[in-house]
């Protein structure tokens, strides 16, 4: 089966590394929507354009390897509408508890941990060494950056960015489209569209 990776930047390299570490024998095709990327060699693969092949994608598995949350989620939905199957990628050095669930098209990078009864949504990224503890609920199109730690029972809305090495205390809620800065310590729930830097929220985004 053909595996189509959409995106050819740094995050695509992370996805490819996870696939190869897991011993995938799929034929891998790397695609990008930027014509200037056509023909570049990324991690040993030639980049093709456009990002979505014309016509039916039936018989293909697809993973969108783009950092921008809303774009990643939208491209996954477009690919599925074209008949593709979503591909979730779990690095063999990640740990996902058997009782946890990983949504379609999501990634668990090396050393990521997803605890008991946690649930990860569609097109989400649990990046290197991030921890999603027991009973967390993570929405669609979320990026949990390297080293971030979510305590038990945290609920995260859709298209949220949680920065590298951030800590979210147990039981809190993070609203849709919120941004948690790198290294932040979140001690209160965060509203939709709000940004939290360091130990406090800043003005919400429209």
TrEMBL record:
- Residues annotated for substrate binding in this entry: 67
**Do the record's keywords include Repeat?**
yes
Q: Which residues form the PglD N-terminal domain?
A: 4-77
- The yes or no answer to whether the keyword Hydrolase is present is no
Which Gene3D superfamilies does the annotation name? 3.40.50.20, Hexapeptide repeat proteins
Which PROSITE patterns does the entry mention?
A: HEXAPEP_TRANSFERASES (PS00101)
Sites annotated Increases basicity of active site His: 135
Q: Which residues form the active site?
A: 134
Query: Where on this chain does acetyl-CoA bind?
Result: 143
Any Pfam family hit: PglD_N
Q: Which domain of life is it from?
A: Bacteria
User: Which CDD domains does the record cross-reference, listed alphabetically?
Assistant: LbH_AT_putative
Q: Which UniProt keywords apply?
A: Acyltransferase, Repeat, Transferase
Recorded GO MF terms? acyltransferase activity
The family line of this record is: Belongs to the transferase hexapeptide repeat family.
| PANTHER family with a match to the protein in the record | ACETYLTRANSFERASE, UDP-N-ACETYLBACILLOSAMINE N-ACETYLTRANSFERASE
Instruction: Return the protein name.
Output: Sugar O-acyltransferase, sialic acid O-acetyltransferase NeuD family
């Amino acid at each position: 089966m053909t595996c189509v990776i959409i995106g050819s930047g740094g995050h695509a390299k992370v996805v490819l590394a996870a696939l190869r570490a897991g011993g995938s024998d799929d034929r891998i095709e790397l695609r990008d929507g930027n014509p200037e990327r056509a023909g570049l060699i990324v991690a040993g693969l030639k980049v093709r354009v456009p990002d979505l092949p014309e016509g039916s994608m039936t018989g293909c598995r697809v993973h969108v390897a783009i950092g921008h949350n809303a774009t990643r989620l939208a491209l996954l939905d477009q690919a599925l509408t074209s008949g593709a199957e979503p591909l979730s990628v779990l690095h063999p050095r990640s740990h996902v508890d058997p009782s946890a669930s990983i949504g379609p098209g999501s990634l668990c990078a090396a050393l990521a941990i997803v605890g008991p009864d946690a649930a990860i949504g569609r097109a989400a990224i649990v990046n290197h060494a991030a921890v999603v503890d027991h009973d967390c609920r993570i929405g669609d199109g979320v990026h949990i950056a390297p080293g971030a730690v979510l305590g038990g029972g945290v609920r995260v809305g859709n298209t949220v960015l949680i920065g590298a090495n951030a800590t979210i205390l147990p039981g809190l809620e993070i609203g849709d489209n919120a941004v948690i800065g790198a290294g932040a310590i979140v001690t209160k729930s965060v509203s939709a569209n709000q940004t939290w830097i360091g130990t406090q929220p800043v003005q919400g985004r429209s």
